[in-house]
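User: quick one, fold this
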Amino acid sequence: MQHNSTSCHLSPDLCPMGAEISSNKRAVEDLEAWQSRQNGTLQRLEAKLDGLRNWIMGTLFTSFLAAIGWAIVITSRK
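Assistant:
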């Protein structure tokens, strides 16, 4: 008889590890589902951080331009 190591379709008397194998399989499936949800969450967080970075860079650029404009006005008054 050939034994398949990935599954055991025998009765619990013949395959006492069957319940543990089944439990481990469910645990792995749950972890894979959790990982998938986490990946989605991380992608949304990354998108928000990209937006925040762009907003900060825009604010800094605007402030830089305002400082240059202010410097030009101050130096042209003399």
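User: anything notable?
Assistant: The chain is about 75% helix and 0% strand.
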